[in-house]
Amino acid sequence: MADSGRKRAPKRLLTQAELEVMSILWKLGEGTVRQVMDELPAGRPLAYTSVSTIVRILEQKQAVGSRREGSGRGHIYFPRVPKEEYEARSLRDLIGRVFDGAPVSLVRCLVENEELDPKEIAAIRDLLSARRRG
Fold this sequence. Notes:
Layout: H1 16-28, H2 33-39, H3 48-60, E1 64-68, E2 75-79, H4 83-98, H5 103-113, H6 118-133
Helix pairs in contact: 1-3, 2-3
């Protein structure tokens, strides 16, 4: 099923294993199952068949597309959902489920519980200022 079109983020959030594979594809831009396996962190041994199954599930969820690799049976997989789109979807879900739909609660938790360096704080201020202006 070759398809290069972008789709909306999957309706359901990805599992941890799916997100791990998806993150590798976002980083690579595209890749074979073997290339995804090569990018797995050390100490994360997954069988070829396991990675292949995860990629096929991502394809069924329309998060990943594929095209044939040359004349062989192999496929090259690529993200159909931009990382930023999935991040936004995940964040909306987190705000709704954990923070009672209040983004300010998320920001409060971030500021109170994370060690933000001065550059990160300045970047957050710049984002808020730009949002206020635009």
